[in-house]
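Action item from last week, closing it out:
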Amino acid sequence: MRVLNLDEICSDNVTVKIAGEDYIVPGDLPAETMLKLLDAMGATKDKPDDSVLIAKLHECLLDTLAIKNTIADRSKIKKYMTMKRYNELIKFLFGVDEAEKKSLGQADVPRQQ
């Protein structure tokens, strides 16, 4: 009998620090979460000034943080999640920084865990 162990291919969880608090993000996001993020990102890319779409993306990111963390007060995270931090979190979640480094020929820099 053949066995496909999907647990072996999962990435390690990562830690994101926001306003001095550590939040664990799953190394592999659930497919439903990933699809919601992709949808929200696509919508905001097409209409970057639409505050309703940005708020939807914001909630998707908070939902991503809530997967492995008990977040009693989302308002604290909202207070500190600037657009620059959002962009960095999205790049981090999707591994964009590593892809850009590879395309530029830079050495791999492991993510902090």
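Closing note: The longest strand covers residues 14-18.
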